[in-house]
């Protein structure tokens, strides 16, 4: 019996889909390019991200998720539909059971929006689980034990922090401060210091390549291109990791360890932790019933 069940990590920056028996089948940016004249979807995911900042006037690249929740209902539905179809190799008649990870402090209205989007994208049943809890499962933390494990899940739009013991969340907070704010901090820093305007893709690239929150063993530099705000012409400058460190958080484990004195480790595959943990729910419906959000 080939199950069509899916686990989805519907993230602000990336959406990952896990298919029962197959593993992760989709890992793409949460972006949709739409033709303003016709309302048609031009591209979704990677293709749409490549269009960021490069589209003609009639095509807009939309990020339908903001701060971990749905900001644009119609576009999220189209995006989910596309990813679900892609996970099933474009078969039109599948009606999967879907488990979706959501931020822990999500409101009733936001919950309904996620559920409705999934049902409109042809799901037969929809279950919601808290991202922090499934991230802990995906990262291999022993959450069923009688002692506390703390998980910090830093996404694109939200950072979810939870202390978990005996499969339950003892304490949790969802802070709307995460990867996107880091990109903005880099953009603002370069604007302030160099009068250089860069696009959001460049800011993310700088963060990934030379960003850190704790001094690196080997200093890094990077050449970046942008537009000089005073002269209005293209300009290239070289920056180093110490400049970006003020606004950033790579090597974050070392920094948190230093400042709290707690043992801290980074998950083997941080981006996939939520979807892998959610995926485990597909084969363990007893656990799912225990941890799903009502």
Task: List the keywords.
294 residues, alpha+beta, Nucleotidyltransferase, domain 5, 2 domains, three-stranded antiparallel sheet, 10 helices
Question: Please, could you describe this protein's structure?
Answer:
This protein has 294 residues and is α+β, with helices and mostly antiparallel strands. The protein folds into 2 domains: 6-135 and 269-291, ATPase, nucleotide binding domain (Nucleotidyltransferase, domain 5, 2-Layer Sandwich); 179-245, ATPase, substrate binding domain, subdomain 4 (Actin, Chain A, domain 4, Alpha-Beta Complex). It has helices at residues 46-50, 73-87, 108-120, 131-138, 179-194, 200-210, 241-245, 252-260, 270-282, 285-291, and strands spanning 6-10, 14-19, 23-29, 32-35, 41-44, 59-62, 65-66, 69-70, 97-102, 125-130, 149-154, 159-165, 168-175, 196-197, 221-228, 234-240. It has a 5-stranded mixed beta sheet with strand order 3-2-1-9-10, sandwiched between helices. The longest helix is centred in the middle third of the chain and has 16 residues, at 179-194. The mean pLDDT is 88.
């Amino acid at each position: 019996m080939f199950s069509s069940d899916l686990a989805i990590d519907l993230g602000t920056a990336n959406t990952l889909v896990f298919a029962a028996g197959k593993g992760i089948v989709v890992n793409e940016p949460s972006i949709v390019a739409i033709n303003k004249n016709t309302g048609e979807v031009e591209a979704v995911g990677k293709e749409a991200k490549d269009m960021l900042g490069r589209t003609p006037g009639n095509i807009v690249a939309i990020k339908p998720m903001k701060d971990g929740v749905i900001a644009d209902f119609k576009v999220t539905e189209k995006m989910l539909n596309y990813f679900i179809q892609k996970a099933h190799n474009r078969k039109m008649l599948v009606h999967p059971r879907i488990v979706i990870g959501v931020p822990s402090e999500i409101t009733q209205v936001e919950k309904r929006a996620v559920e409705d989007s999934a049902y409109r994208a042809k799901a037969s049943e929809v279950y919601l689980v808290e991202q922090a809890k499934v991230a802990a499962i995906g990262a291999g933390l022993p959450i069923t034990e009688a002692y506390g494990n703390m998980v910090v899940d830093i996404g694109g739009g939200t950072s979810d922090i939870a202390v978990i013991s005996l499969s339950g969340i003892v304490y949790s907070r969802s802070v709307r401060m995460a990867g996107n704010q880091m990109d903005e901090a880099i953009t603002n820093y370069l604007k302030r210091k160099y009068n250089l305007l860069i696009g959001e893709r460049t800011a993310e690239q700088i963060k990934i390549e030379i960003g850190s929150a704790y001094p690196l063993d080997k200093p890094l530099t990077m050449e970046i291109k942008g537009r000089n705000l005073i002269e209005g012409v293209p300009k290239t400058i070289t920056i180093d990791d110490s400049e970006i460190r003020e606004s950033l958080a790579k090597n974050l484990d070392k920094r948190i360890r230093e400042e709290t004195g707690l043992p801290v480790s980074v998950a083997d595959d941080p981006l996939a932790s939520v979807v892998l943990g959610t995926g485990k729910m597909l084969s363990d419906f007893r656990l799912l019933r225990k941890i799903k959000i009502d």
